[in-house]
Amino acid sequence: MAEERSGSPFTDDEYAFLRQVRFGEMPPAVRPEERVELTETDPRRDRPEPEDPDRWDLRHGA
C-alpha cells in the first residue's frame, strides 16, 4: 500500500534535494579582501542648469 503522509508532501531532506537539483550548488562566498569599496558620486543631471529657470520653460514649451 501507499505510504500515507500528513501535512507536507515532501520532507525537509527531499525539499533540500529538489532545490539542489533545480538550482545546483551555491557559489563560494566572497572573501573580504576580494570586495571593492564603493565611491559615492553626485547624482546624474538630466539637463544642464539654466541661467534663468523661467526662460528654460518658455523655450521648451512646458
Describe this entry's structure for a reader.
By secondary structure, the chain is an all-alpha fold. The chain is built from two helices and no strands. The longest helix is centred in the first third of the chain and has 12 residues. It starts with 11 loop residues before the first helix and ends with a helix. 0% of the residues are buried. The mean pLDDT is 77.
Task: List its salient traits.
62 residues; mainly alpha; 31% helix
Quick one: how many beta strands? Answer: 0
Q: How much β-strand is present in the residues?
A: under 5%
Based on helices, strands and strand pairing, what is the structural class? mainly alpha
Q: What's the order of the H and E elements?
A: HH
| Spans where pLDDT lies below 50 across 5 or more residues | none
* Rg, Cα atoms, Å: 29 Å
N-to-C CA distance: 77 Å
From the spread of the alpha carbons, the general shape counts as: elongated
Indicate the mean pLDDT.
Answer: 77
Number of helices: 2
Largest sheet entry:
none
Helix amount: 25-40%
